Amino acid sequence: MPDLSLATLDPMALTGANVLLWSVLTIGSYAIAKRIYRRWTHWWLMPLAVAPVLVAAAVLALHVSYRDYMRWTHWLVLLLGPATVAFAVPIYEQRLLIRRHWPVLLVGMIAGSLTAIVTSWGLASLLGLDEALRLSLVPRSISTPFAMEVSGDIGGVPDLTAVFVVITGITGAALGDMILARLPFASALARGALFGMGAHGAGTARAHQIGSAEGAIAGLVMVLVGILNVLMAPVVAMILA
Amino acid sequence: MSTHYAVSKRLHRSTALQIGAVLVFWGLGTALAVASGVPLPGGILGLALLLALLLSRRLSALSLRRGTSWFLAEMLLFFVPAVLAVLGHREFFGLIGLKILAVILVSTISVMVSTALAVEACYRWTSRHA
């Protein structure tokens, strides 16, 4: 995608005002989306779904190019970097759980990651989606900061991956419930891993509602699988190329 | 020792200071990635650095807990702008969009079932042989 807007860059002052306006609008939409969800707890009203819709409505209503909008609010996306750092504390706090169950969790994460890669790639090919879409779909089961990183590494489009990650999160929490209703797994380990591996942050939130053990395991799996996938990305890129 | 105590006490109390500290770790990780040429994002190296300090007890998890919880709780906000990229893909609001949705739904179900089955089988096996 050539960035045509570069040729018509706004004067500095105007850009500053836009950065402020659109950052406030984005943070405001997010705050409203959280309040809506606190009031009506339907899976399709997750802030994950509602906040982008509110922002998109503002962008379309005010006839602003989505590309300008993304440039003005890019500093928010950069904060995914420190958010990755923040995962150190939950990992540290779950160190006993990791020490006791790491082989089991590792097997689950490898099985889940391989399934994600093979089914995303295979189904997308089967349905005739182009290569950029196929590659952008591969990392969508992992948490956003990691997913966007992997997407870039393997030749996908990180922005598209962010969209797919969101759709996976919204639908994944509901899909997990459906699966558990039909396949009641006996161990909290399996139930937690199912949500953390399949639906990252949204899944972890759902797992916390099922039980504290499930929640801790889901959060842990979400973080570890993100790191595992970033480390695996160069190998995956070689195989898919 | 007393200044160290005073600093850590202030850090314990202030969420803003802790958020600042997380940003510092991210900056360190990014600088480390650039300087060493390791092909890992600065965030991951920052995570490793912070985890090493926590595990070696040079830093207490309590002194960063509020800041890191803030980042994790509000993480969703940080990718709202990225999701707007969908507006550049009008073709998603049609057949291609339905195909993508089908891939995501079927793949997510497969990932969840295979993960849970693997963990359950492995857990049973290890508890039987423990």
TrEMBL record, chain B:
Subcellular localization: Cell membrane
GO cellular component, one term: plasma membrane
Keywords: Cell membrane, Membrane, Transmembrane, Transmembrane helix
Membrane disposition: Multi-pass membrane protein
Transmembrane region(s): 40-56, 68-87, 93-119
Xref: InterPro entries: LrgA/CidA
Coiled coil stretches, renumbered: none
Predominant place of localization: membrane
Signal sequence segment: none
Protein name: CidA/LrgA family protein
Organism: Paenirhodobacter hankyongi
